[in-house]
Amino acid sequence: MEALRATAEGAIAIQAKQVKAFGTEAAEASLQQLSIQRRNPSAHDVEIEILYCGVCHSDLHTARNEWHSTVYPCVPGHEIVGKVRSVGDQVSKFKVGDTAAVGCMVDSCRECEYCREGLEQYCEQGNIGTYNSPDQHLGTQTFGGYSESIVVNENYVLRVPEHLDLAATAPLLCAGITTYSPLRHWNVGPGKKVGIVGIGGLGHMAVKIAKAMGAEVIVFTTSASKVEDAKRLGADDVVLSKDETQMQRYHGKLHFVLDAVSANHDINAYLALLKVDGSLALVGAPEHPLPVAAFSLIPYRRSFAGSMIGGIAETQEMLDFCGKHNLVSDVEMINIDQINEAYERLLKGDVKYRFVIDMASLKNR
Ligand code: NAP
Ligand code: ZN
Ligand code: ZN
After folding, report:
1. Whole-model pTM?
2. How far apart are the CA of 198 and the centre of ligand 1, in A?
3. Closest C-alpha residue for ligand 1 atom 20
4. Does 285 contact ligand 1 (Cβ within 6 A)?
5. DSSP codes of every residue in 132-198
6. How far, in Å, CA of 206 to CA of 175, rounded?
7. Three-state DSSP class for 361?
8. What is the pLDDT along the chain (365 residues), one digit of tens a residue?
């Protein structure tokens, strides 16, 4: 099949094929089966048959247009692992049959100062997200991993440590890197007391990674049902955040706090936990602004920061780190036709701790 893409020089033909996907046509609509185009691999492209795809809360925010930038139809999914089905004739990093992974980005300008530094996620031109970004090849928006296959430039494809369980590795491609990157950036390690807020897909990986980095890890959760579990995940202590007495124990005691909460919450309660010069990094991306009181920051010279996923080299570093420390996600496997129910459960914090879609369930539909 040929798709026509408009360029400054006029329309050019791109060879593409139709593949099965799952996505949504509107913010209020359920996800359902769709047909999307995938380009035929060009010289530097890798075509991957998708075996597993994790379900990130960002998929839900995007499918429902909570960040007000969704282009429909929308096919979410950016925690992708699979097998290489074909490669372009200039590809040197992958061969047919290799296990390969794709995370939150499929391209960037490759020339700006951030791309050159390995910070492609902050590309001056805007990184090309795995879904809901402009697709330069087909002229549509990009479509994510709730699909049979994906075609990605080899420089944006990752290697998976061989001994890790593949389905449980998928969530590392977003939940893993989004927590690893700020934990590294703020020098989390031995001698540091670190708070992790919100124990969902991101938060539970943050606990495992921060512990493997050698830090003392304190979990803050709204869910009584996660208290015992958080210790199993590696937490040294767990605080039920609705209990003010328990919260008081850590006032002014933490070097760093990573906040992975997906909904509105009182950020000032967590800023109060920081020591002098401590930082709170927000990775959770709630739909509405979070008010910050000046006197949450001023008295202890505290910093309030954000962090977005991680660069390609850092994502590979994270996968290798997880390989070395045998870290994977705690997953609940689902079939593609359970995705709408999974979104409802995600909204209730009812997942331990990441849904992963067995993509054979789409292939066999
Ligand atoms: P998730 O699995 O749904 O986990 C979110 C957790 O937040 C829940 O498990 C719950 O933890 C807590 N929570 C939920 N509602 C709450 C509320 N009303 N009040 C207090 N706590 C609440 O989500 P996720 O996939 O880990 O993603 C978390 C957030 O990070 C999302 O907003 C997502 O879009 C964002 N994200 C950002 C990046 C980035 O680059 N910065 C990348 C990926 C995802 P407890 O039960 O422990 O309280
Ligand atoms: Zn994500
Ligand atoms: Zn760039």
Report:
1. 0.96
2. 6
3. 265
4. yes
5. SSB-TTTSSB---SSBSEEEEEGGG-B---TTS-HHHHGGGGTHHHHHHHHHHHTT--TT-EEEEE-
6. 8
7. helix
8. 555 555 545 455 679 999 999 999 999 999 999 999 999 999 999 999 999 999 999 999 999 999 999 999 999 999 999 999 999 999 999 999 999 999 999 999 999 999 999 999 999 999 999 999 999 999 999 999 999 999 999 999 999 999 999 999 999 999 999 999 999 999 999 999 999 999 999 999 999 999 999 999 999 999 999 999 999 999 999 999 999 999 999 999 999 999 999 999 999 999 999 999 999 999 999 999 999 999 999 999 999 999 999 999 999 999 999 999 999 999 999 999 999 999 999 999 899 999 999 999 999 99
Domains and CATH numbers, the chain: 2-174+310-363 (3.90.180.10), 176-306 (3.40.50.720)
Count CB atoms within 10 A of the CB of residue 291. 10
Distance CA 124, CA 140 (A): 21
Atom of ligand 1 at shortest range from CA of 353: 2
Distance (Å, whole) CA 135 – CA 142:
5
Whether 221 is in the pocket of ligand 1, judged by its Cβ within 6 Å, is yes
Radius of gyration of the chain (CA): 20
Q: Whose CA is nearest to atom 39 of ligand 1?
A: 308
**Cβ neighbours of 308 (radius 10 Å):** 15
Residue of 53, 57, 307 to test ligand 1 pocket, by largest number of atoms within 8 Å of CB: 57
Residue 154: name the closest of 75, 88, 77 by CA.
88
CB atoms within 10 A of CB 68: 7
How far is it, in rounded angstroms, from Cα 266 to Cα 109? 37
